[in-house]
């Protein structure tokens, strides 16, 4: 009886078979979950467009005021030129020094341009008069590039408007600036590769962070544990489908970044794809680890965000890595996003090869293996 | 999981198999300082339908979970299908079908997908074919693409049972499988269980229903984590030593209340228009009811104790001991 029945249907395919079973199940559930599926496609696009257009360290139409201490053609020409750059939008003309200071202090304007008395005369005499540009330094990222652009732009404007000789000495400006924040003129070039990492980190973490707790909350975990499947098979079966999803997301982001923002891919696209896959798997593994630790889905999401925050702040995405204090750099050094940012910026913008990215690649692989090991060890095979 | 366990996990089931499918001794499980199962021993023979009875929270589910390796006993041990329940749980899992108390299939997968998933996990050579055959056997043809979560209670239960027996297990552990299922579906379910047992499958089933208990080859009654009685239904009834009288007539409510306070009466329970009066000591019981025997409004007749009488009596005694 049993001997015959047991022998009939069951040839054990072992590890791969059970992993495959889990993978198929996860894919089917994924397909059923329309909202999750839609967010997987929409999140990268939405974020790319939002971040790409909105988070712009090279902002336009910054509110500015002007204080004219003399009425001169040169002065007017400078203002026109500044207006033409679209960096500045002159909202008000201040009449006195006090009003000028107040308008900047109360936030009416982020910039104030003061054209001093006898500016034109001094300029023509080559006395290098001071054009005072006061910037609200509370948001240095916002003002930095506008300030950086001023110097060249005013000179060009003066040359064009007033026919000053090319060799005329440059006007000197007093600029309160933060040397750290002087990003390249086109922000998106820097932002898009970073966004690739940010979006992948966020979505991948959340997807797997929910996977084990969901089984537990829906009561399916008990059945699953009663089946002859190993923790590592469950893990791989749950992670692998999302590697595919992550890969599609990455393709969307890179594609849109290239088409919409004209971001180049100087380096090897295949290398970028391979290392992106590694990064995706790393984040999925970390998310899965959270899932084995968390008691419920809410906790899992909270843990994912706890991890996400330092990734954003300390990876070099938001603030330049080199500008961070030493301790923050050490933390950043263990975050996967830090390494992936170096990889994407390197490959996309500088054409870096694998040999140069060796260290970052190894760090990603190490993070993945550590996370997977913890997850398999943490996974409770019993209900004890 | 040790490597010894892994090595045997994919091994075929013992060809002839032991005659005693479940053989555990002194099982004890504590959650914190609460002992949920206390020194429990049981043997279940091949092909038996073994009823596992007891009130809510008596430790039935915990015991079943220990048998299939989902919980580790704090003390005691034994074998299930000849495999050690402490160290060889993976081998046990391969040949045990466990139907949880709560529906635990994937509600967002269809009937077919659920079956195919289980078929693949257990390494069936043709999970798709096996699922198709199971759907036909369960009479679920029209519903194979329906999501499991949208099935009615009775169909969910059928599907859950179908999923359990898909990988050809040798032992079924059913945890209150018929809770919340209508009488017709319950009857069909039990017919199926008997058919499976006739094929040599061993079934351990926990239940609250007395009629279901009577359908088992053997039963065990557990309360507050302690096994109080076991054996065949007749055996358990006889072993209880309970004498029972059935009384019908007028004013049974008052009579019941008065008898319950009378020494020698251990249990009074209304059954339809009748009252069951039972006591462990026959002489004491007869003395207790003697004053009412002559009442012309009542008619008395000696009766056989029912399983329910026995269990209610066992439970009240267990309460005295453990509360």
UniProtKB/TrEMBL annotation, chain A:
User: Where, by residue number, does the polypeptide cross the bilayer?
Assistant: 35-55, 191-212, 239-263, 269-291, 303-322, 361-379
Task: Tell me if Ribosomal protein is a UniProt keyword of this record.
Answer: no
The superkingdom listed in its UniProt entry is Bacteria
Q: What is this protein called?
A: ABC transporter permease
Annotated Pfam families: ABC2_membrane_3
Annotated membrane topology: Multi-pass membrane protein
Instruction: Give the family from UniProt.
Output: Belongs to the ABC-2 integral membrane protein family.
Domain named ABC transmembrane type-2: residues: 131-382
Its source organism is Chelatococcus albus
Which Gene3D superfamilies does the record match to this protein? abc type-2 transporter like domain
What InterPro entries does UniProt report for this protein, alphabetically? ABC-2_transporter_component, ABC2_TM, ABC2_TM_bact-type
What are the entry keywords? Answer: Cell membrane, Membrane, Transmembrane, Transmembrane helix, Transport
Q: Where in the cell is it found?
A: Cell membrane
Chief place of localization: membrane
From TrEMBL, chain B:
What are the entry keywords?
A: ATP-binding, Nucleotide-binding
Disulfide bond is among the record's keywords: no
Chain ranges of the ABC transporter domain: 22-249
Q: Which domain of life is it from?
A: Bacteria
Q: Matching SUPFAM superfamilies, A to Z?
A: P-loop containing nucleoside triphosphate hydrolases
**Coiled coil stretches, renumbered:** none
Q: Which family does it belong to?
A: Belongs to the ABC transporter superfamily.
Q: Which PANTHER family match?
A: ABC TRANSPORTER G FAMILY MEMBER 20 ISOFORM X1, ATP-BINDING CASSETTE, SUB-FAMILY H, MEMBER 1
Q: What is this protein called?
A: ABC transporter ATP-binding protein
UniProt source species: Chelatococcus albus
């Amino acid at each position: 009886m049993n001997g015959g029945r047991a022998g009939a249907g069951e040839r054990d395919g072992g590890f791969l078979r059970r992993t495959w079973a889990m993978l198929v199940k996860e894919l089917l559930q994924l397909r059923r979950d329309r909202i999750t599926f839609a967010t997987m496609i929409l999140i990268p696009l939405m974020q790319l467009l939002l971040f790409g257009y909105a988070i712009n360290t090279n902002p336009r139409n910054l509110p500015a005021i002007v204080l004219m201490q003399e009425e001169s053609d040169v002065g007017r020409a400078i203002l026109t030129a500044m207006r033409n750059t679209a960096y500045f939008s002159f909202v008000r003309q201040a009449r006195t020094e006090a009003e000028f200071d107040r308008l900047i202090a109360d936030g009416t304007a982020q910039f104030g341009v003061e054209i001093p008395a006898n500016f034109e005369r001094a300029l023509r005499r080559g006395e290098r008069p001071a054009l005072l540009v006061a910037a609200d330094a509370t948001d240095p990222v916002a003002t930095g590039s506008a300030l950086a652009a001023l110097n060249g732009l005013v000179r060009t404007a003066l040359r064009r408007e007033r026919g000053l000789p090319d060799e005329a000495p440059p006007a000197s400006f007093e600029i309160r600036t933060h040397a750290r924040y002087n990003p390249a003129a086109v922000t998106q070039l820097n932002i898009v590769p970073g966004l690739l990492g940010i979006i992948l980190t966020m979505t991948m973490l959340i997807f797997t962070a929910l996977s084990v707790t969901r089984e537990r909350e829906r009561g399916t975990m008990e059945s699953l544990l009663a089946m002859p499947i190993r923790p590592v098979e469950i893990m791989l079966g749950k992670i692998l489908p999302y590697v595919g999803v992550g890969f599609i997301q990455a393709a969307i982001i890179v594609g849109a970044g290239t088409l919409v923002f004209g971001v180049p891919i100087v380096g090897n696209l295949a290398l970028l794809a391979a290392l992106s896959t590694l990064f995706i798997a790393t984040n999925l593994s970390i998310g899965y680890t959270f899932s084995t630790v968390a008691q419920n889905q809410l906790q899992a999401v909270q843990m994912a965000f706890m991890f996400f925050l330092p990734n954003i702040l300390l990876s070099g995405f938001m603030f330049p890595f080199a500008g961070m204090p030493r301790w923050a750099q050490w933390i950043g050094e263990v975050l996967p996003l830090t390494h992936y940012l170096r990889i994407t910026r390197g490959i996309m913008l500088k054409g870096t090869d694998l040999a140069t990215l060796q260290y970052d690649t190894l760090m990603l692989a190490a993070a993945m293996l550590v996370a997977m090991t913890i997850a398999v060890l943490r996974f409770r095979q019993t209900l004890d | 999981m040790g490597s010894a366990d892994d090595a045997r996990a994919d091994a075929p089931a013992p060809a002839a198999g032991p005659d005693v499918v479940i053989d555990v001794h002194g099982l004890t499980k504590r959650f914190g300082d609460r002992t949920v199962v206390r020194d429990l021993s049981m043997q279940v023979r091949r092909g038996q339908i073994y009823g596992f009875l007891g009130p809510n929270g008596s430790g039935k589910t915990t015991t079943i979970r220990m048998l299939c390796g989902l919980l580790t006993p704090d003390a005691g041990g034994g074998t299930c299908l000849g495999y050690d329940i402490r160290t060889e749980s993976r081998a046990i899992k391969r040949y045990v079908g466990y139907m949880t108390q709560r529906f635990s299939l994937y509600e967002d997968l269809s009937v077919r997908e659920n079956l195919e998933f289980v078929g693949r996990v257990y390494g069936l050579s043709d999970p798709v074919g096996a699922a198709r055959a199971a759907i036909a056997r369960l009479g679920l043809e029209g519903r194979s693409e329906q999501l499991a979560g949208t099935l009615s209670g009775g169909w969910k239960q059928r599907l859950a049972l179908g999923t359990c027996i898909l990988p050809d297990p040798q032992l079924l552990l059913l945890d209150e499988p018929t809770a919340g299922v209508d009488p017709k579906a319950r009857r069909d379910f039990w017919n199926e269980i008997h058919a499976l047992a006739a094929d040599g499958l061993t079934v351990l089933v926990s239940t609250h229903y007395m009629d279901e208990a009577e359908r088992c080859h053997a039963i065990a009654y557990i309360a507050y984590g302690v096994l109080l009685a076991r054996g065949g239904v007749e055996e358990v009834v006889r072993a209880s030593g309970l004498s029972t009288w059935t009384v019908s007539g007028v004013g049974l409510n008052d009579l019941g209340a008065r008898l319950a306070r009378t020494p020698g009466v251990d249990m009074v329970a209304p059954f339809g228009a009748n009252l069951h009066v039972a006591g462990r000591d026959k002489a004491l019981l007869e003395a207790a009811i003697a004053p009412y025997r002559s009442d012309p409004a009542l008619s008395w007749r000696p009766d056989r104790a029912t399983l329910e009488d026995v269990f209610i009596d066992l439970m009240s005694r267990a309460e005295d001991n453990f509360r």
